[in-house]
Design brief:
Layout (H helix, E strand, L loop, with lengths): L12 E7 L5 E2 L10 E5 L16 H7 L4 E2 L8 E2 L2 E5 L6 E6 L13 H14 L12 E7 L3 E6 L6 H5 L29 E7 L3 E6 L13 E6 L3 H9 L5 E2 L5 H7 L8 E16 L9 H10 L2 H8 L4 E3 L14 H6 L4 H10 L6 E8 L7 H14 L3 E8 L1 H9 L5 E6 L7 H4 L16 H12 L8 H14 L2 E14 L2 E2 L17 E4 L2
Parallel strand pairs: 3-12, 3-13, 16-17, 16-18
Antiparallel strand pairs: 1-14, 2-21, 4-5, 6-7, 7-9, 8-9, 10-11, 11-12, 14-18, 14-19, 15-19, 20-21
Family: Belongs to the bacterial solute-binding protein 5 family.
Keywords: Signal, Transport
GO biological process, one term: peptide transport
Length: about 525
């Protein structure tokens, strides 16, 4: 199943509303003689090897590696990058790709069909725990014909497979430099992306320069990019104000975004805002004596006030979410609002009374202290306040750092816990499939044969992703009734930049990755 985890609170945008200031014209030369554009982020790579990463490392991978297909700026579906690809025959079970002619890696080695097969096969051979192997669950085998033709044979119909190939996890690597059975450990990258990695200092910066041998759709509007890694939004914004960086990407806190919206005090900066696909949930453990009871979960769903969380905790930098599938994607519904309506302690009391459950119900809510940003603690304090104000629940809050928090929920230790999610790819499937089945992203088995055996297979047989509304609507009806997960909010995306930088509104693809090549420096009038 798909288990890509949410980085500190902020996500990719699909639609942007730029708030621009200043005068100038765009310098589109992209000359290597220009100063690099410096981008700050709180999302540092955990590895430089695509076979080992299912996390924020993808931000770097998209710019230094290449995939067969990818998402250009503004695209809703994968397009040809290293290769032209399509399903062959009927049934969405055979996916064929033909590479561009004379492809090479940045070191001059040939990028051929054998290299593509090697790159995909090693992901499954290495099988890194928490790595991207789970994305390839529908893949049976990879075959090649000549130097340019690659065919993916699937175990079953899967119209989302092109979306999987478009993820940076499926980056093509040089077989001469990446061991077949182990993860590459050094600080080097041998890829074919728009940039090469000139230097890398973990936790500090990555220096990217143009890859002269690149062949793909990226129209690079700058000659070089330096990515600076920060541990806090406040430090990142301070660097932006001090002109030590030119733009921010991931990790802008709600309070900083609100301040940057004030054009009276931020005259030399701009903020690009857009609707994102980041989502946040409460997860209920079915083995807990209280959270395992459906009426208890339904009562919680009846009480939680998402609007209050969005406004008082996140200062309206998130929006209430009443669907497993976020707004902006085919399949989005409002089932949790349709079923539960406005928050009501009286309706919640009726649910519990009818089930013969005495109140107050004891619940322990767990959250992580260092994964989703500084607003997580006040968010859970607000949830506790809401539930206890109903007089129906007695709530205890517990927290752990991410490394021990993750281990705890995988062991089933928490009755109720918070999780964030942003997609591997922009399709409703990636907001439903990861959370159901015996093995799933939240390690709480959710057996729903109608979803796993009927609705998801039906949707994956359909190449037209606009034609799967019925399946995803029904899946969400089931999930709203069960309340095994309770969606809370959907994030927005913000890019803050100096007014000399253009291209922010084009720089995020729908799978939450920043396309560094879209950024460019303006020149004065």
């Amino acid at each position: 199943m798909f288990r890509r985890l949410l980085a500190p609170r902020v996500l990719a945008a699909t639609t942007f509303i730029p708030l621009l200031a200043g005068c100038g014209v765009v310098n589109a030369s992209g000359s290597e003689d220009e100063d690099p554009i410096v981008v700050g982020t709180t999302s540092a790579p955990s590895t430089l090897d695509p076979a080992a990463s299912w996390d924020g490392s993808w931000e770097l991978f998209r710019n230094v590696y290449q995939t067969l297909v990818a998402f250009p700026s503004g695209a809703a579906q994968p397009k040809a990058d290293a290769a032209a690809c399509s399903f062959k025959g009927t049934g969405n079970r055979t996916y064929h790709c033909r590479l561009r002619e004379d492809m090479t890696f940045s070191d001059g080695d040939a990028l051929d069909a054998a290299a593509v097969k090697y790159s995909i096969d090693r992901i499954r051979t290495i099988g890194v725990k928490g790595g991207p192997e789970g994305l390839l669950g529908s893949l049976d085998r990879v075959t090649t014909s000549g130097d340019r033709d690659v065919t993916f044979h699937l175990k079953k119909a899967d119209a989302t497979f092109p979306y999987v190939l478009a993820t940076p996890a499926m980056s093509i690597v040089d077989p001469d430099d990446y061991p077949a059975k182990s993860v590459r450990k050094d600080r080097e990258v041998s890829g074919s992306g728009p940039y090469t990695l000139k230097s890398y200092s973990p936790g500090d910066k990555a220096e990217l320069v143009k890859n002269d041998s690149y062949k793909g759709f990226a129209d690079r509007k700058n000659g070089a990019v330096t990515i600076r890694y920060f541990t806090s939004s406040s430090d990142m914004v301070a660097a932006l104000r001090a002109k030590k960086i030119d733009a921010t990407f991931r990790g802008l806190a709600a309070s900083d975004a609100v301040k940057l919206q004030d054009k009276k005090n931020e005259k030399e900066l701009q903020l690009v805002e857009g609707a994102g696909m980041e989502t946040s949930y409460l997860v209920f453990n079915p083995k807990d004596p209280w959270a395992g009871k459906k009426p208890v979960r339904q009562a919680v769903a009846q009480i939680v006030d998402r609007g209050a969380i969005a406004h008082s905790v996140y200062q309206d930098t998130v929006t209430p979410l009443y669907s497993m599938v976020p707004a902006g994607l085919v399949g989005h519904t409002t089932d949790f609002f349709n079923d539960y309506g406005e928050p009501s302690a009286a309706k919640a009391a009726q649910i519990l009374s009818k089930a013969g459950i005495h109140t107050p119900v004891p619940l322990t809510l767990w959250y992580t202290t260092d994964r989703y940003g500084s607003a997580t603690k006040p968010e859970f304090e607000e949830l506790k306040r809401q539930l206890e104000a109903s007089k129906l629940f007695e709530v205890k809050l517990e927290s752990r750092p991410w490394n021990t928090f993750e281990a705890g929920y995988r062991k089933g230790e928490y009755p109720v816990f918070g999780r964030g999610w942003f997609p591997d790819f922009p399709d409703a499937d990636n907001f439903i499939a990861p959370f159901v089945g015996q093995e799933n992203a939240v390690s709480t088995p959710y057996i729903s044969p109608e979803i796993t055996d009927e609705l998801l297979p039906q949707s994956r047989r359909e190449s037209d992703r606009g034609a799967v509304v019925r399946q995803f609507a029904r899946a969400q009806q089931i999930m709203a009734e069960d309340v095994r997960l309770l969606p809370l909010w959907q994030g927005k995306q913000y890019i803050a930049a100096s007014e000399e930088i253009a291209g922010g509104e084009r720089a995020l693809d729908p799978s939450t990755i920043m396309l560094m090549w879209e950024l460019e420096r303006k020149t004065s009038w």
